């Protein structure tokens, strides 16, 4: 019996049952966004940690992303985590994430061990001020990175996060040769094989490291909780661009509207954090810079919706 006769016998109602499925997954509820200020954006003005909080709150952000070195400086000046936690609470902000540089992924096992020790100390500090995430870039890694070993270390780091209450967000840097590509963090996270594995992508790093942007479509749900927002200019070759060349979202040539659509479609709520290092912005009033960045992020989201 040939295929045509089989289909005739089955009838049209049965035929519908063997048509290709449009999707293997159930429709996802689109994620919602909140807005966060990474203090790198105004660090050139050097306002200090307490002032960063005031500026972010006045500018209208939902949260703030701090640098651990600024927290350590604040404490070294005689301040306390309890006072800072109260200020944060009174501001109405959430400390969404922190930026640190512990060499947990170092090839050298002794350096990696020290990196884990540093990470635990910093996680405990962050927990004391109500911050429950910390960036985990591949500090200490050397090319070529053993991604299987890195995945096992990331698993250990996630366990440390559960112990301290501050969860690591696996990050890559586009200009850092050993660990510069979205594909690398996807593999490391897969090797970790942990439901709490989280990724921290960045517009600039996706571009600078040659990852492109369509790989984000492979990521689903809550795997991304924080996303760094910025943009890049067209007049500098990709391999020559540096952190200082980042510009406000929408002022460059990045496909930000499509990226935001992809973030919405993957499901799960996201924190969009403005992370810039532009020396021209550092010469301006920090409140104006913060407000401008927030307005531009919201404009991108509005266009994507």
Plain-language structure description:
The chain has helices at 3-17, 49-59, 68-76, 81-91, 109-128, 147-164, 182-192, 203-208, 256-265, 279-282, 286-304, and strands at 33-38, 63-67, 94-99, 133-137, 167-171, 199-200, 226-229, 270-274. The strands form two sheets. Strands 3-2-1-8-7 form a five-stranded parallel β-sheet. It is of the alpha/beta class and 305 residues long. The termini are far apart. Helix 2 crosses helix 11 (286-304), helix 5 (109-128) packs parallel to helix 6 (147-164) and helix 6 packs across helix 7.
Which stretches are low in confidence, meaning pLDDT under 50 for 5 or more residues running? 6-27
Shape designation: globular
Q: How are strands sequenced across the largest beta sheet? A: 3-2-1-8-7
Total helical segments: 11
Specify the biggest β-sheet. Answer: 5 strands, parallel
Q: First CA to last CA: what distance? A: 51 Å
| Structural class label | alpha/beta
Strand content: 5-15%
H/E element order: HEHEHHEHEHEHEHEHEHH
């Amino acid at each position: 019996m040939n295929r045509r006769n089989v289909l005739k016998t089955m009838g049209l109602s049965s035929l519908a049952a063997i048509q290709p499925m449009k999707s293997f997954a159930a429709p996802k509820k689109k994620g919602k966004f909140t807005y966060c200020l990474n203090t790198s954006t105004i660090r050139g003005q050097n306002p200090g940690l307490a002032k960063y909080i005031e500026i972010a709150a006045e500018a209208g952000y939902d949260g703030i992303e701090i640098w651990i070195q600024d927290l350590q400086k604040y404490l070294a000046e005689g301040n306390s985590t309890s006072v800072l936690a109260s200020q944060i609470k009174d501001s109405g902000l959430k400390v969404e994430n922190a930026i640190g540089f512990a060499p947990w992924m170092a090839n050298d096992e002794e350096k990696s061990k020290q990196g884990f020790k540093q990470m635990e100390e910093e996680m405990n500090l962050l927990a004391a001020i109500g911050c429950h995430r910390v960036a985990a870039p591949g500090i200490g890694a050397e090319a070529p990175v053993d991604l299987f070993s890195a995945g096992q270390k990331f698993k250990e780091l996630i366990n440390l996060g559960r112990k301290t209450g501050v969860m690591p967000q696996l990050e890559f840097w586009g200009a850092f040769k050993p660990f510069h590509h979205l594909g690398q963090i996807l593999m490391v996270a897969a090797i970790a094989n942990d439901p709490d594995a989280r990724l921290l992508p960045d517009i600039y790093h996706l571009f600078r490291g040659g990852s492109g942007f369509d790989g984000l479509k492979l990521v689903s749900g809550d795997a991304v909780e924080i996303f760094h927002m910025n943009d890049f200019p067209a007049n500098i070759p990709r391999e020559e661009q540096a952190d200082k060349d980042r510009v406000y979202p929408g002022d460059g040539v990045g496909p930000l509207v499509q990226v935001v659509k992809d973030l919405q479609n993957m499901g799960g709520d996201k924190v969009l954090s403005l992370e810039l290092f532009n020396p021209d912005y550092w010469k301006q009033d920090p409140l104006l810079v913060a407000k401008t960045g927030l307005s531009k992020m919201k404009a991108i989201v509005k266009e994507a919706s």
